[in-house]
Amino acid sequence: MHALAQEQLRLDAGPVDYLLLALYFVFVLGIGYLARRSVSTSLDFFLSGRSLPAWVTGLAFIAANLGAIEIIGMSANGAQYGMPTMHYFWIGAIPAMLFLGVVMMPFYYGSKVRSVPEFMLRRFGKPAHLVNALSFAAAQLLIAGVNLFLLASIVNVLLGWPLWVSVIVAAAIVLSYTGLGGLSAAIYNEVLQFFVIVAALLPLTVVGLAKVGGWSGLVDKVTTQSGANELSAWPGNELTGFGSNFLSVLGIVFGLGFVLAFGYWTTNFVEVQRAMASKSMSAAQRTPIIGAFPKMLIPFLVIIPGMIAAVSVQEMTVFKQRGTGDVDYNDALLLLMRDLLPNGMLGIALAGLLASFMAGMAANLSSFNTVFTYDIWQSYVVPGRSDGYYLRMGRWVTLGATAAAVGTAFIASGYSNLMDYLQQLFSLFNAPLFATFILGMFWRRMTPTAGWLGLVTGTGASLTVFLLAENGVLELPGQGASFLGAGAAFVVDIAVSVAVSTVTRPKPAAELVGLVYGLTPKEDRTASTTGEDAGWYRRPGVLAGIVLVMVVLLNIVFG
């Protein structure tokens, strides 16, 4: 955020705004303190003792993803590309979330693993487990750094606090409640943060639409200033960087909708951890499906304000048309808040922004400390200690991860649109993991050697595409390089895994029960429909069907 002009973005926060912020922080720390009383084992700290109801884990599932990157990054995408940004939600999230709930959660929850890498350990053995644990840990530190950098930059710009003070205060508050109460503190705070974020963004969207003359006024202004292509989601050429409509649609459906989205939502432990904290198999399956309902509507709270800023805020309009000025697309939401919100409302909006950054960073920290403690420290460095030792270790790891995030924050500072950076990370870390997962879950012949070799070569393929695009060999503006990198990672991973599996020895079938679809009895992957899980509205398949119909309708209406 080096290009931010301080005086342009400074918000005129008054005493009432600071009071609202202070109240919010009291609540956040109070939740951490109360959650600590329920932490007596490492399972309590890392997975909430598997005791939470589906509606809590469902909202936390979405709030964990509703971090700084989602809100600032998606409003930046809205300002830059318009309606094609909807694909990140309706194509690039919902189908994968439904697949996770209906197909994959029974394996995660039923096998009682404590993390996604632990599932890899049981399916493929130690080499694949170690590769997955290390790559996931690295990704979480990089993404936590993005959240921390954005949070500190925005506090610095909006309120005038020095950057180093903002970084330390933000990191200390997140560290306090995740260090105290573990995953329960993170999850209950995510539920609180979800409502605070909606309370902040809904008025901003409504007031913004009123300013530009309603939906029809926004349509007229976007058409005049940027062209009608920003008003329909398909084919989304500007977003993908492809000139051909066919290639653009293929890139969105296969690169984003299949490889990147399924890779992120089905194998990313940040999300899966929330569902694993549920009290039953049915609740675990419903977690991502319940989360899909608000996920469908969030674009209206982040993308539409970005589009409004692009046509109504003078500095943003100049930047979009000429590519010059002291602001960039990441500032779209802040500029709109500055222009539209009075005191009081400003305090709620600030709390919403801070909540989103803290939710994202807390999610990164709580998943990192689980994977590092269980899958790296306990498995390879110091095995065989007491449960109390690993509980204490988890708290120290949280402290270390927070310090590391302060360091990785500065890597993010070189990107004018942080979604470019984030999609690149996902194509590197998540796409090859998804290929290994999906093949290993449905093909019993896949071998342990293929598990780790596929991961390494898939990551290498994505990295190659990234380097070729960075050096100008591949001309792919927008987020086309990450879509292509994700596709390359997936195809190479599958090809290598199949080839290696034909010449190496698979695990015996008896060892794969509960890990491979065809070898797991139907009753072991079917949720209960009695007691607390009774009622048609608690059936994962029925809920998923309702969501799917709604998403198809949204694509037709805004396509």
UniProtKB/TrEMBL annotation:
UniProt keyword Nucleotide-binding present: no
Q: Where in the cell is it found?
A: Membrane
Q: Which UniProt keyword terms apply here?
A: Membrane, Transmembrane, Transmembrane helix
Recorded hits in InterPro entries, A to Z, give: Na/Glc_symporter_sf, Na/solute_symporter, Na/solute_symporter_CS
Which parts pass through the membrane?
Answer: 18-35, 55-76, 88-109, 130-155, 161-180, 192-210, 246-267, 288-311, 344-365, 396-415, 421-443, 450-469, 481-500, 541-558
| Pfam families (UniProt xref) | SSF
The Gene Ontology terms for molecular function here are: D-glucose:sodium symporter activity
CDD domains given for it?
SLC5sbd_u2
Report one GO cellular component: plasma membrane
Annotated membrane topology is:
Multi-pass membrane protein
Q: Which family, according to the similarity comment?
A: Belongs to the sodium:solute symporter (SSF) (TC 2.A.21) family.
What name is this protein filed under? Answer: Na+/galactose cotransporter
| Organism, scientific name | Actinopolyspora mortivallis
